[in-house]
Amino acid sequence: MRPVSGMSEPEAVAEWAELVQKVLDANVAYHRDDAPLISDADYDRMKGRLAELEAAFPGIARAMTSKSPTAMVGAAPAEGFGKVTHRVRMLSLENAFSDEEVTEFDERVRKFLGINGAIAYTAEPKIDGLSLSLRYEAGKLVQAATRGDGEVGENVTENARTIADIPQHLTNAPDVLEVRGEVYMSHADFAALNARQAAAGDKAFANPRNAAAGSLRQLDAGITAGRPLRFFAYAWGEVSQPLAVTQTAAIARLNSLGFQTNPLTVLCDGPEAMLKQYRLIESQRATLGYDIDGVVYKVDDLALQARLGFRSSTPRWAIAHKFPAELAWTELLGIDIQVGRTGALSPVARLKPVTVGGVVVSNATLHNEDYIAGRDSRGNPIRDSKDIRVGDWVQVYRAGDVIPKVADVDLSRRKEGSQPYVFPQVCPECGSPAHREEGDSVRRCTGGLICPAQAVERLKHFVSRGAFDIEGLGAKQVEMFFRDASLPVKTPAEIFTLAERDAANPLQKLKNRDGFGEVSAAKLFAAIEAKRVIPLDRLIFSLGIRHVGEVAAGLLARHYGTWAGFEAAITHASPGSPEWAELTAIDGVGAVMAQSLADAFQNPAERAAMDALVAQLDVQPVAARGAVDSPVAGKTVVFTGTLEKMTRAEAKARAEALGAKVAGSVSAKTDLLIAGPGAGSKAKDAARLGVETIDEDTWLRLIGG
Ligand code: IVH
Fold first, then answer.
1. Cα gap 187→240, rounded to integer Å
2. With b meaning 16 or more CB within 10 Å and e meaning fewer, what string describes 404-429?
3. Residues labelled catalytic
4. Which of 43, 53, 35, 51 is closest to 75 using CA atoms?
5. Boundaries of every domain in the chain
């Protein structure tokens, strides 16, 4: 490398710009694609050189520092836990709450696979703890990570090493083995821990799950060591060799390697046996000595599991059958109205605090105005048409981690002179009229961005996990900045001018405020800078447009590729236009979502806020899924007629896994039509448009089986 002292400014700028691009590419490859391009050492060297150039040529720094990766936080945060990107994502489970939903799950699985006969499933307790992934290389425990958001978790290796149930060494294990399972605390250990906490004047934990989470996520592993944590293994992530061919045998193998596996795990030959095991486990729930909140069923045959694959965050081959919710009766002290991100007015019950299944509940949802009045959104009676009034005795219902609900009301205890609840017709936050659209069960504030409640909720969404996920800028800080007179943040764009405004603010610098200091203020600014470079899918999700969740944002980003392409298309989309036709042809995008997108992009105030935001960002294009190594990646395919080798659902899932887009109808954009026997109008459309048409066998050869 040339010494900077001998360089001219233009030479320095040229080298700087080239390096910035390399570092940004490396960031995207590492953080987003989970496929590092360069070694950590090379990355550090490039960043070092950038800093050197910036120090020697202050002009560079002044002009372009907002884009320089030297201002960004590195991969591992200096404080707290390091981050671990899971090589195989840690998923959650779909839930079932009734016997019927379990039967339906079995039907869905068999339909997907096209199997008429019975399929075997395992049934095992669902442990109420927190999941942990343990990575072993050459038999040695090298890393332990929490689930985090499923893609990136926290590195808790040192803490995991203190847990007696977790072996440090394995013999006869595959070279790479990630064992997954649940960390939990027994009832007896929980009670003893809380007694010790009380004796030491420390806060008691609300339940064993919180105690286990709090104990595992201690920065000081010495504290974790003093907390009696346990571990059950029930799944795996990356493995260099398959553990077995069935779930049952894989779990037996983990057990023989030295892991605790749950003794109540059994193999069932279908839904009847699964439900029998559910009842058996439920009957033992109170005497197990640890918390469980349901039963998990998994397809036993691992080859079938592989065929079934995953949805965006849950496997198709497993389901959690939850135990019924817990109930309690208490008094309804009042009804508050909260205004959400999309303007929805949500009634919240303020309750006389009551314990429901071990947790103290003082707030519960009342859903919407119809629910309070005793009818559903179609006007049909619910709860025998009993309405809910302030002062009533109400039944509170809690299931798992979801928000408690008010489920019922005791009319025999209703106070004399009580009045039906009148739902507000104007927004309690901004006074704008609150309207109910035809067919919508929710009344919404029409204030849009002028409503402070909507604006602040949108900001909270903007900085949330799946969106910009800015370290040090959570809901609490957003509330604070929103109300701050000297350094206000009312729109997403203003987040990115915070540092500049703070620097220009002679008084009341952030570092001098309560809750901040020199280091934390600098860190916050650096964390914000780091997020100027943002992948398109995250940006779309972060806009908080109604009906556009994370999955939809991914679909849109992969379809349009760039912000410019996306923005131009949506700006011109209205029913009947070619842009509308293209938008609604994306599999997973319907007319409701399309309208909501068009409304947002065509509303001047919303549009101004978006433009101001994008001007602050470097939006990274998103490639069509799996663009690298599949002959169908990026292609739009359509299936028609009868498929004989697999069901339509499986064919669609496989095509998508290989990076193809599966559309429902043939258009000029279609690359390939796969036509089975009985193909009708779609085959004709394809012939007319000159779209290549192949049969199922040719398709299977094309995708390699
Ligand atoms: S299997 C790919 N089995 O429940 C599926 N999960 O609600 C991997 N959990 O994140 C999960 N007991 O933390 C599985 N016997 C069990 C479980 C279990 C508890 C947790 C796990 C998961 C969550 C989903």
1. 37
2. bbbebbeeeeeeeeeeebebeeebeb
3. 126
4. 43
5. 4-71, 83-322, 327-435, 448-531, 535-620, 636-702
CATH T-level topology, domain 535-620: DNA polymerase; domain 1 (1.10.150)
Atom 18, ligand 1: residue with shortest CA distance: 126
Which tokens sit at 105? 């799950």
φ/ψ of 128, rounded to 5, equals -95, 80
83 backbone dihedrals φ, ψ, rounded to 5°: -100, 145
Query: Which residues surround ligand 1 with Cβ inside 6 Å?
Result: 91-93, 124, 126-127, 131, 147, 182, 234-235, 296, 315, 318, 320
Q: What are the backbone angles phi and psi of residue 199, rounded to the nearest 5°?
A: -60, -35
Task: Calculate ∠ Cα 603-609-612, nearest 5°.
Answer: 130
**Strand 152-154, strand 405-409: pairing:** unpaired
User: What stretches in the chain show pLDDT beneath 70?
Assistant: 27-37, 39-41, 61-79, 358, 399-402, 625-628, 705
DSSP letters along 56-91, please? H-HHHHHHHGGG-GGGS--SS-SSSPPEEE-SSPPP
Alpha-helix runs per DSSP H in 74-183:
99-113, 157-160
Q: Can you say how many angstroms the Cα of residue 654 is from the centroid of all Cα atoms in its chain?
A: 23
Q: Specify the pLDDT at position 559.
A: 94
CATH among 2.40.110.10, 2.40.50.140, 3.20.20.30, 3.20.20.70 for 327-435 = 2.40.50.140
Residue position matching structure tokens 């009906």: 547
* Fold of the CATH domain 636-702: Rossmann fold (3.40.50)
Element (H, E) at 648: helix 648-657
Tell me the whole-structure pTM to 2 decimals: 0.56
Ligand 1 midpoint to CA 186 (Å): 18
Specify the amino acid at residue 430. Answer: C
- Nearest atom, ligand 1, residue 298 CA: 1
Kind plus residue range of the DSSP H or E element containing 48: helix 40-56
Other beta carbons less than 10 A from residue 678's beta carbon: 9
CATH of domain 4-71: 1.10.287.610
**Which residue has tokens 């998923």?**
91
- Report the separation in Å between the CA atom of 668 and the middle of ligand 1, taken as the mean of its atom positions: 44
Strand order in the sheet with 176-184: 140-146, 130-137, 176-184, 230-239
Which residue owns the Cα nearest ligand 1 atom 22? 92
As a whole number of angstroms, the distance between CA 660 and CA 627 comes to: 9
Q: What is the DSSP string of 388-422?
A: --TT-EEEEEE-TTSPPEEEEE-GGGPPTT--PPP
DSSP state of 424: P
- pLDDT value at residue 28: 59
Topology of the domain comprising 448-531: DNA polymerase; domain 1 (1.10.150)
Q: State how far the Cα of 138 lies from the Cα of 142, in Å rounded to an integer.
A: 9
Phi, then psi, of 151 in degrees rounded to 5: -105, -40
Confirm whether 4-71 and 83-322 share one CATH topology: no
Q: How far is residue 414's CA from residue 428's CA, in Å, rounded to a whole number? A: 27
> What dotted CATH number matches 83-322?
3.30.470.30
Burial of 306 (0-12, 13-18, 19+ CB in 10 A): exposed
| Alpha helices (H) along 450-549 | 452-462, 475-482, 492-495, 498-504, 518-530, 536-542
Give the ligand 1 atom nearest the CA of 310.
2
Alpha helices in 114-216 (DSSP H): 157-160, 187-199, 208-216
